[in-house]
Specification:
Layout: E1 7-14, E2 27-31, H1 38-54, E3 57-60, H2 68-80, E4 85-91, H3 92-100, E5 104-109, E6 118-121, H4 124-141, E7 147-153, H5 159-171, E8 177-179, E9 183-184, H6 189-201, E10 206-209, H7 212-225, E11 230-234, H8 238-245, E12 251-255, H9 257-272, E13 280-283, E14 286-290
Parallel strand pairs: 2-3, 2-4, 5-6, 6-13, 7-8, 7-9, 7-10, 10-11, 11-12
Antiparallel strand pairs: 1-4, 1-5, 12-14
Helix pairs in contact: 1-9, 4-5, 6-7, 7-8
Length: about 290
Amino acid sequence: MKKTLAIVLALMLCLGAVTAAAAEDWKIALITMDSIDQHWVTLNEGAQAKAAELGVTVTFMSPNTKDDAQQIECVNNAVAGGYNAIMVDAISSALREAKEAGIKVVYVDSPANVEAEATFSTDNKAAGKTAGEEMIKALQAAGVTEGSIGIVNVNAATDSTVQREAGFREAFEGTAYTLLETQYGEGDAAKSQSIAENYITQGVVGIFGCNEGSTTGTGNAIKASGTAVVGVGFDKSDAILALIQDGYLLATMAQNPDVMGSMGVEACVKVLTGESLGGEVVDTGVSVLTK
């Protein structure tokens, strides 16, 4: 589950002067929320591919479970180990401390409210709007031009999923569909399934899941109900892909973490060589995955 804190899903902290160091000697650590979530695994794959291309070494040293203390320990180990740069999940308070220490910051996935050299992330509001448009197209193709729509979100504090919901709702402006009050499942598939099941008993024609757990729960609820509710979600996992393949979900908005990881490493190298990135913001987009 994406955390409820203002989380940065991958950022770079450049440590010390490195102009005298050869690129092959640079040590870069990638420290994400955990090392097992497919999102982070794919992000690491993108980072490793770019690292090989640029001739630098990136070490994936994330904890094997979602635990703030273990993640902080990984960061401390990287600093103590003489790493030149760190790509890491972090909360805003940690970033402020880094900035005060003169450390450079690059965001990959979701920015916090601390100024950075550059940001490479999904435009979550735009992606949410795409999800809504995909649902509308499917409903209209089935001759369903009105009805209620349910939304399963994580919570009201996770900015990325809040933005996805905002974009989704925007897509329905001016239509005859009614978007129901959002329900929160904390990104847990079982809780999200119960919420989706309640929506289905209310006769909804569509349900939107705002993250991986919400989407999996939505798909499982539609599968169990045997109804023709249109399910659209966010993120990619084997469970979600199977639900799409079996026809229980229409589509999912898959982020491109491999692109984030690749561009993050490239930005890391640029800053280590003294180049200014000027605070650029790059939308790494989403891929609409359907059957």
